[in-house]
Amino acid sequence: MVRVLERLGHMVEFPAGQTCCGQMHYNTGYQKEAMPLLERFVAQFKDAEAVVVPSSSCVAMMRDHYPKMAREIGDAKLIAAVDVLLPKVFEFSEFLTKRLGLEDVGASYPHRVTYHASCHGLRNLGLGDGPVRLLKSVKGIELVELQGLEQCCGFGGTFAVKNPDVSGAMLADKMAAVLATGAEACTACDNSCLMHIQGALHRQKTGVKTVHLAEILAGEEGAR
Questions:
Q1: Is the predicted pLDDT of residue 51 greater than 50, yes or no?
Q2: 126 plus 176 within the same structural domain
Q3: Average pLDDT of the chain?
Q4: I need a labelling partner for 217 at 20 to 30 A (CA). Which of 6, 31, 86, 96 fits?
Q5: Global pTM?
Q6: Containing domain of residue 76, as a range?
Q7: Share of the chain above pLDDT 70, in %
Q8: Are residues 57 and 19 in the same domain?
Q9: ∠ at Cα 104 (99, 107), nearest 5°?
């Protein structure tokens, strides 16, 4: 992601004090423990011109819950700071297509690829066909449509742990769809989906790999 942004002429800073966004805590009943992570996020990024995140689920957590968490803490300054900061927070593909108005970022990736739309990006953030438009502009890529593109892969954070049978069945459907494309790689905007799908692809020795959208867009002419 840094490579893409720097290629486009942007200066990227990585605050060393940043931590988890708090989603794992907040979604599993440890909401009190998530509150300091909100405060830390604001402290780390309050001076940023834009905050670009390679995870649609993290951005969804921030947009859906940070304003509510700030109100629960009851700090007027924190509430105001969250209101100012959130409009500057973007999922990576969203930053490219909606903030910068780009589709072609000068990438090259000569492989057969299929794209999985993660639930948070599709339903919470409304990314639409933005990631697909970015992929279609990549030189050398053969982009194959995934059957059931909008269907969940079955991960869902702790859903996969608490409901393993249902999660496994959903993953099996997604696996079948990926393999039917004949793709060398499956890409998405969320590492949690990619981790879940890669686990199944690896266990079944399919030879298909998963790559984050940023990895594809970072590819340059002549790279393999």
A1: yes
A2: yes
A3: 93
A4: 86
A5: 0.91
A6: 2-98
A7: 98
A8: yes
A9: 120
